[in-house]
Amino acid sequence: MGSVLELKGIRKAFLGTVVLDGIDFDLNAGEVHALMGENGAGKSTLIKTMTGVYEPDAGSIHLSGTEIRPHMPSHAVKLGISTVYQEVNLVPNLTVMENLLLGREPRGFGGIKWAEMRRRAEVAIGRLGMSIDLRAPLGSLSIAQQQLVAIARALDTEAKVLILDEPTSSLDASEVESLFSLIRQLKADGLGIIFVTHFLEQVYAISDRITVLRNGSKVGTWDIASLSRLDLVTQMIGRDAATLDRPEMVAASSGSGIPVLAAKGLGRRGSVSGVDLELQPGETLGLAGLLGSGRTETVQLLFGIHPFDAGSLSVDGKTVSRMKPRLAIRKGIGYCSEDRKREGLFPELSVRENMLVLMQVQRGWHRRIPLAKQRTLAKELVDRLKVEPRDPEKPIQFLSGGNQQKALLARWLAVDPRVLLLDEPTRGIDVGAKFEIMSLVETLRQAGRSFVFVSSELPEVVRSCTRVLVMRDRHAVRTLESGEIAESTIVKEIASS
Amino acid sequence: MNRAALREKLPIAITASVLLLLCLGAGLKFENFLSMRVFANLLADNAFLGVVAVGLTFVILTGGIDLSVGSMVGLSSIMAAKLVGTAHLHPILALSIPLVVGAVIGLSHGVLIARFGLPPFLVTLAGLFFCRGISLWISRESIQIDHPWFHDLTSWSLSLPGKGALTAPAIGFLIVLAVGIWLARQSRFGRTVYAIGGNSASARLMGLPVQTTLISAYALSGFCAALGGALFTLYTSSGNAISGTGLELDAIAAVVIGGTLLTGGYGSVFGTFLGILILGVVQTAITFQGTLSSWWTRILIGVLLLCFMLVQKAIESAARRYQSH
Amino acid sequence: MKRLPAWSWALAVLVAVLLFNAFLTPGFFNFVVRDGRVFGSLIDVLNRAAPVALLSLGMTLVIATGGVDLSVGAIMAISGAVAAGLISRPAGTPFEGGKSAPALAIPAALAAAMGCGLFNGFLVAVLELQPIVATLLLMVAGRGIAQLLANGQIVTFTEPAFAVVARGATLGLPNPIWILAGVGILIGIVTRLTALGLFVEATGSNPVAARFVGIDARIVKLAVYALSGTCAGIAGLIATADIQAADANNAGLYLELDAILAVSVGGTALAGGRFSLVGSLIGALLMQTLTTTILTRGVSPEFTLVLKAAVVVIVCFLQSPSFRESIQGRMKWRAA
To answer: Predicted confidence band at C332 (pLDDT cuts at 50, 70, 90)?
Structure first.
């Protein structure tokens, strides 16, 4: 079968930053083509150029041999490129039937013809071999079923290409299986399917070919049989796993025996499960794993953002039955979110206020830190972390990402927590800032503070962690002790099945 | 029936049972309460409010709000009276011109909200000030309407069995209600309104005409408010610039009591009809009672509103709990 | 370069309107001292702006947390009805009986107002209802309650000790101005000399992040709604003392909208976050100056409403992100 979709030399830059650099990609009819890559690889931008959200700066898109220029999502749909997103893009308050046909309802003199609509919906659903109550409101369905309805809607427009953008990230095993049997059937019908996911097992279960992107460039395209898991992970992370070892050893400090933070079988329904970890004073515990492996979810359970419903959690050997952010802070645990914008910044407030708000909360509302003292403290923190510009009165929204990150870190340093949960603290910031943050962490660790460190950059994990917990598919797989830590071992654990 | 379908039907079921209980209670306490005449009067007395609330329902279903409806009633009423009284237009024309004005003002609300992303609350607040200002500018005094055709229309009514009679405003209300129900259930416009209220980002990604639909919803609300004003003019045979003061609250209350969520997406025009009936029954019962003063209406409406909000909240959080598992 | 405060352009417009009056409205800046009191258009503006300005102070903090309080007009009516009822104790009202001194009536009215505010706060913070919906409740029922308290009458009274709240003067200036100044300074101190202001801003700026640094948004919200209710109570007392009567139907009618307007004109974003009490006061003054100007220039007063409508739309445009972006984009493009 020939190629149904072909991308040639796609290039896209935002504000001078090249996000996609001359990507070639082709999709055959009747194939499942997995698109893989870590954060910032350019997957979602590439998909958005195919679905008309972005227009590429250079390059061309060909559908069944003719060049197309989709300029908005509905246009791409009309051309035959349908997309099902991770977040179900349907409306929860209307019925399954209406969601399938919204905007193209059959109409007659008396308005919408419901009988005709029902018939068409039955056909659309029946084609996928599903049995779903057409009159149930979409919101009453499980996420998996909603996803299937989204696919049915996408197919009702006679799609030639179906893009599945992380459709499985919130599904459980049996739901994934029902989705996969559908994908196999669509494939047999001759549809070209692009499948984006973070789950290696799923890639190997369903795909025919794999294309890996890294930092906006294409690394390569392989037949599934010719690329081992280890090779795939290596290609995604961008290092040859065999040749890289730990450059320097970091000795684990001898703890008092009682861990500051410990979890046993910690989990939450629909999130992670079976997380065992122990954090001693003066230790940096790395959480390694691919995107979507459950690292962030684990850290959020530890800080009490979502309550855990399985396993146990203890601080200083004392069991905590229900963790909440306020309780965590009181116990000396801090959390720097990976999502700065949504969970960290107060955009309109000044750098000074952003840095000192936590300290102020701990002092209580009535004991305001005097302005002069705030200024001195802010100045000290700004200097210590080299936040640019050095003006603490500037609203934080006008700082660069790296400097925002430093200011958020400063927020915690100001109160000197015993445990700091760092989720991707070095994401999207420049090399200098990365180095500064990591050496600061190391200094504090040597002073007896503990860290849980989540990072997608293995060299960082290897260089700075005393132990590493490897996660895969939302489970903790194994804890690597200090002597075992090396990029090669981590990669092997991530890729093993 | 599954739980989500229950979620859909429960609010309106509660509204209906409250209405039934109120009617039963009032019927037991007062003789002649459960009669066609009382019902017909109730319709006539609340026709203008009902028409306004039907239009408002669409806006609220999209997740928006229209605060301008009350002063739009005033504008429409004073404008019609002025056109008959001073410009000597035929009442049909005089009552129709404000409808166009109402639709245009509603349309401009919609454009500011949908195209420029301004908050509905403030935009329609500006509309409230604007309409009231213009009406007072047209005339500060109320204007009586003297026109033979007008008298014929106001005194005309359709006899019902059991001594009841439907007046022209009541019939107008019933027609608007029927059209509203049809629009909401049977038209693409209506279904898109629900989709926007459910999740406007998804609606956009599904390729639905979100902007056009939003603008139409506000235009419809403006039109209905002006029509409500026209019916009010018929009802009182006069135009007054300050009529409809605070009416937006009653209309919002009727919509919410009718089971429509202020966050949009859930509810129905028929529910709004039930909401209007509940308000009407409370009012009528208090009049029948005689010793209870009129302000109890407002307080009771408030209590009912609170109850419905709490019920909606409970349903919502139950649904969320169900969803997360 | 130091950034200009968000209210600078509101101040600029205020100054422009005042200048306009200085040249074109004879006697606008005149002051006359009679019986130890200062009279003049400017004093009049301040005096008349006091109730809305008081409402806008409370409203500022509510809006800063990302909420809104629609019930302040109705709370004014309740506060007035309680005070007038306790002072004159007319037959048919719940207060029937011997008269009370203002020393009892005023605290009772304020307590009732604060109770209303706490009720709003409870609905918003604990039951997590949308602020518009939650405060709509008292906006609807509040006037009913006020009428109930006044038994549907306009409760009139003659009590010089109470009338002095609105009609008296201290050091030559009308008392409402002093009350406004006092309340303003008090709220300023409480928000800016403690950390409450920061907590309010953090809650409104990013509720998720506020939770992650351990701010208890419930208590913050409860407090601001209670404060807003109390401010409305004070405004209600002034309005009642001014006309020596409590009019449950008309006291504070639509003033909630004026207050919201004053807050937005003063540079506090309706989405919450940074707030400016000074800005809100300037906003309230600006609105009143415009009204007074229209009145003194003999333009028909209906136009204040149309003018307000225009101001609302302009403020919306200035605050809307899409509008700002397009302006900034154009400026950048021009600079490039």
So the answer is: very low
Do residues A246 and A449 make contact, with C-beta atoms less than 8 angstroms apart?
Answer: no
- The residues, ordered by sequence, that sit 6+ positions from A371 with a Cβ below 8 Å of its Cβ are none
> Does the interface ipTM go beyond 0.85?
no
Residue A143, token pair as written in the block? 């996420």
Residue C137 distance to chain B (closest CA, Å): 6
- CA of C270: which chain B residue's CA is closest? B119
Q: What DSSP string runs through B170-218?
A: HHHHHHHHHHHHHHHHHSHHHHHHHHHHH-HHHHHHTT--HHHHHHHHH
B163 contacts B37 by C-beta, under 8 angstroms? yes
Tell me, yes or no, if B115 comes closer than 8 A to chain A by beta carbon.
no
The residue of C127, C128, C136, C323 whose CB has the most chain B CBs within 10 angstroms, and thus the best one to mutate to test that interface, is C136
Does C309 lie at the interface with B, CB-CB under 8 angstroms? yes
Backbone angles phi, psi at A310, to 5 degrees: -145, 150
For the cut 80, the answer to whether the pLDDT of residue C19 exceeds it is: yes
CB contact under 8 A, A94 and B198: yes
Task: Give the 3-state secondary structure of residue A447.
Answer: coil
Q: Is B202 part of the contact surface with chain A (CB cutoff 8 Å)?
A: yes
- In which residue are the tokens 């009986």 written? C97
**Half-sphere exposure at residue B14, Cβ-oriented, CA atoms within 13 angstroms:** 20
Q: What are the DSSP calls for A398-442, one per residue?
A: GS-HHHHHHHHHHHHHTT--SEEEEESTTTT--HHHHHHHHHHHH
User: Which among C199, C201, C205 has the least Cβ separation from residue A365?
Assistant: C199
> Residue B137: which of B237, B222, B241, B227 has the closest Cα?
B241
β-partners of residue C174 are: C169
As a residue count, chain A comes to: 497
Residue C268: list chain B partners with CB under 8 A.
none
Side-chain half-sphere of A80: how many Cα atoms within 13 Å? 17
Classify residue B324 as exposed, middle or buried by CB count within 10 Å of its CB (0-12, 13-18, 19+). Answer: exposed
Smallest CA-to-CA distance from A81 within A51, A59, A54, A56 is with A51
Within 8 A of B128 by CB-CB distance, chain C residues are 257, 309
Identify all chain C residues contacting B65, using CB atoms and an 8 Å cutoff.
Answer: 132
Chosen for mutation from B7, B186, B187, B192 (greatest number of chain A CBs closer than 10 Å) is B186
What is the number of alpha carbons within 13 Å of residue A354 lying toward its C-beta? 35
Both tokens of residue A323?
């963790």
Residue A1 has pLDDT above 70, yes or no: no
Q: Please count the other Cβ atoms lying within 10 Å of the Cβ belonging to residue C234.
A: 27
Chain B residues whose CB is inside 8 A of the A103 CB are 188, 192, 206-208
C208: nearest CA partner in chain A: A343
**DSSP β-ladder status, A419-423 and A450-454:** parallel
Rounded to an integer, what distance in angstroms lies between the CA atom of residue C209 and that of residue C202?
Answer: 8
- Amino acid in the structure at residue B163: K
Pairing of strands A81-84, A275-279: unpaired
Regarding predicted confidence, which is higher, C330 or C81?
C81
**Top mean-pLDDT range of A31-40, A344-353, C11-20, C111-120:** C111-120
- CB-CB: which of C196, C213, C216 is closest to A357? C213
CA angle, A391 then C208 then A166, to 5°: 110
Would you place residue C107 in the very low, low, confident or very high pLDDT band (cuts 50, 70, 90)? Answer: very high
Calculate how close chain A gets to B319, using CA atoms only, in Å.
8
User: Tokens 């405003």 appear where?
Assistant: B169
**Residue C103, burial from CB neighbour count under 10 angstroms (0-12, 13-18, 19+):** exposed
- Residues of chain A with C-beta less than 8 angstroms from the C-beta of B179: none
Do you know the residue count of chain B?
325
3-state secondary structure of A134: coil
